[in-house]
Amino acid sequence: MKEIKLRLAILLVLATLQNASSHGEQPLSRISIRKATFALHELAYIQASPTVLGLRGENTEWVTLEFGSTNPSVDDWIGVFSPANFSASTCPEENPRVYPPFLCSAPIKFQYANYSTPEYKDTGKGFLKLQLINQRSDFSFVLFSGGLLNPKVVAVSNHVAFSNPDAPVYPRLAQGKEWNEMTVTWTSGYGINEAEPFVEWGPRGESMRSPAVTQTVDRNSLCGAPARTVGWRDPGFIHTSFLKELWPNREYMYKLGHRLFNGTYIWSQTYHFRASPYPGQNSLQRVVIFGDMGKDEADGSNEYNNFQRGSLNTTKQLIQDLKNIDIVFHIGDICYANGYLSQWDQFTAQIEPIASTVPYMIASGNHERDWPGTGSFYENMDSGGECGVLAENMFYVPTETRAKFWYSTDYGMFHFCIADTEHDWREGTEQYKFIEHCLASVDRQKQPWLIFLAHRVLGYSSCISYAEEGSFEEPMGRESLQKLWQKYKVDIALYGHVHNYERTCPIYQNICTNEEKHYYKGSLNGTIHVVAGGAGASLSTFTTLQTKWSIFKDYDHGFVKLTAFDHSNLLFEYKKSRDGQVYDSFKISRDYRDISACTVDSCPSTTLAS
Asked: Which of 101, 145, 271, 343 is the most exposed place for a label (fewest CB within 10 A)?
């Protein structure tokens, strides 16, 4: 009986924290699209131009809309639909005795009619500029009255399309299972029955071709609504090619290709990347880490929480500093699609300048994975029915099994252990064994910088929801893991999920093990815990309670950068997304003997024998 009560108490705490850490709703979910009716008026109109996009190979273009209504209202809005055909004929019949809804797919974006024309309510005429990306289909624009809850179709535009909707787009680099392997993942409209996908690549002046594997996602592979219903949009074909036996640090050029069965070729633009250093290489190495960035729209549509401009600002800062970045880790809550699949294309387009140039490694978060009855540790509905499927297919990660989203990867002097907090991590589980093996297997002479990454805060956080529960952590977070962090002398553990920035002292069992704050010499004697979940999503409030272990807090959007100068010197920086300036930093200077030194609960066995 006591065990049952304990389990109920744990579930209650988890449910409370889920509500506390939830940050609003997906903007597209506010539209009652299945209640839409047709109220076409012969004098109402909406016209889009230009009608053909991407004539010079662009995958992002601006469209101008001109529209008018004889009965304008501040609630009128414009929805962008793709594919352009959104009539009732595309809606599956749910019951032979019940007519299917007129509209069964949410728009891919929306904006109010008076956004650019405040006088629309008085004049009934307006204009709007929207940004479109190449998403494997054509587009149409619909003027609605009745607001988001009672939408009525007043006018429908002409169709707009990219010159080649099926073109290969939005490459995402990721490290492979070997240090000298790079993977390239991209999206296209070409299936294996139409074309052979490949990457043409090599150092400057040389080229070779590597084939790609192709996969896709259908409704039946998803777990619930809205991903299987109004949020469904065909995600196209997802291709991954493995570029192997790379020379360390060498620059490679590459482009995406499809050989059609009629013998013609479809090409992307040319991209480039620098191969990873070999494990232990002593050179300048720069790593960017953040969580919960989400996506935003440059045209101001789909305003979600206060993403504008957190997500775009973070993306902009990374692009501007890209020549000083070697690898990126986005530790969960990737784009907050929440079951609206079109948003994954929008996100991969947003990060293309980054992900096409440096490895873009991801971790699994609650908004990618969680769904009741699907094996996730948390029985909530945060993924919108995606249950991890989109994240597992849109991005490559060097996991043993995609459904178990934990893995390790090396970058020169860094060794990273990436946990999956949407699966059980506690002692005795499969993931716990992985984490211990990952931490234990690193050679600290070659790779002195040991970094632990996870989405939920398994360490320490002053987020108000955690503080109210008295845990200052995800429930059961550090109880099992802190002895591993201490035993294997993890330098820094970083988390997302909480949308702010916070840094602790080196700590073990709630006690600071080093009183220094900005320049650590010698052994840390504990692990520094960092919350870096403020890359874009709406911000999380701190508790007013003061703790001894919290050194720096920031209620703003930002990201973390680690710079290893050599085996003995590391610089940590926290930068704000609004200006890219450093607002918190510390340095670590030490030798190998400092790593191997005896500290609390990490002393090797000794003997008195001579």
From this structure: 101
